[in-house]
Amino acid sequence: LAKTTQPISMDSYEGQEVNITCSHNNIATNDYITWYQQFPSQGPRFIIQGYKTKVTNEVASLFIPADRKSSTLSLPRVSLSDTAVYYCLVENSSYKLIFGSGTRLLVRP
Amino acid sequence: DAGVIQSPRHEVTEMGQEVTLRCKPISGHDYLFWYRQTMMRGLELLIYFNNNVPIDDSGMPEDRFSAKMPNASFSTLKIQPSEPRDSAVYFCASSFGGGAYEQYFGPGTRLTVT
User: How close, in Å, is residue A45 to chain B by CA atoms?
Assistant: First the structure.
C-alpha cells in the first residue's frame, strides 16, 4: 500500500523560497496529488493540485516527476503568515485517500 | 457560499454517551468526507459519500461509529457509545469530484470524551 513521507519540520526566513517534498510510492495512476495548508484550530485549506510535471497558481508551484513517486510544493518568497503545517494528499493504488504526516513550517523574520 | 459548516464546534461528553456530529457541505458538491485528526495518527479518512451514498467506510474504526447522509445538504457522524480514545478533532469536507481532487474543509468539531 502507498506510504507517504514528509519532513517533520522545516525552518525558513521571510522572503526565501521553501520546497517541501512528499514521497509517495504506489499511488493511483489516474488521480491528482493535492497539497493543503493548516493553521492551528482550523481545517486544512487547499493550496494546489497536479497530475504531472509542473503546476503553478497564485500562491505556489507543484512539481511532479514522471514516475509520480514524489511531489514538491514550492512556496516562493515566504512570509510570516506562511507558518503552518503542510500536508500532501494522494490516492493509493487501492483508491484509498492518504494524507501525509504533515510538515511544520516555521518562517522567521 | 458559507463554506462547509460543522456543529457543534466543541463537544465534551462522558464515556458511554452518544455523540452526534453534524455537517452541511457546500451546495453543489457531490462528495462528502469525514476525517479524524489526532496527534498520534494525524489526519485519517473515516468515510466518504458520493451523491449521498456511502462509498468507502473502511476507515471507520469500529461499529461504534456510524455515518449517514440523508440528503445532499446534511450528514451526521455518530459515536455510540463514546470512549476516551475517541477524543479528537473531526473534520467534514466536501468536493466537486472524488479522489484527491480539491476538498473544502469545515472548521472541525473538537470532541473530548472524559
Answer: 7
Could you tell me if A102 and A86 are in contact, meaning their C-beta atoms sit under 8 angstroms apart? Answer: yes
The pLDDT tens digits of the residues spanning B5-64 come to 999 999 999 999 999 999 999 999 999 999 999 999 999 999 999 999 999 999 998 899
Handedness of CA B11, B89, A104, B40 (dihedral sign): positive
Cis peptide before B8 (omega within 30 of 0): yes
Residue recorded with cell 511532479: A64
Q: Which residue has the cell 461504534?
A: B64
> How far, rounded to the nearest angstrom, does the alpha carbon of residue A4 sit from its chain's CA centroid?
11
Q: Do residues A68 and A33 lie in contact, with contact meaning Cβ atoms separated by under 8 Å? A: yes
CA distances from B68 to A50, A54, B57, B58, B86 (A): 31, 38, 11, 15, 18
- Pairwise CA distance, residues B28 & A2, whole Å: 31
What local confidence, expressed as pLDDT, does residue A1 receive? 52
**Residues B90 and B38: beta-carbon distance below 8 Å:** no
Instruction: Give me the amino acid identity at B28.
Output: G
Asked if residue B7 lies in contact with residue B109, where contact means CB atoms within 8 angstroms, the answer is yes
Q: Residues of B with CB below 8 A from A43's CB? A: 4, 91, 93, 105-108
Query: Any chain B CB within 8 A of the CB of A86?
Result: no
Q: Between the CA of residue A14 and those of A11, A19, A79, A107, B69, what are the distances in Å?
A: 10, 14, 5, 6, 44
- Comparing CA positions, the residue from B90, B114, B107, B95 lying closest to residue B37 is B90
Residue pair B98/B50 in contact by the 8 Å Cβ criterion: yes
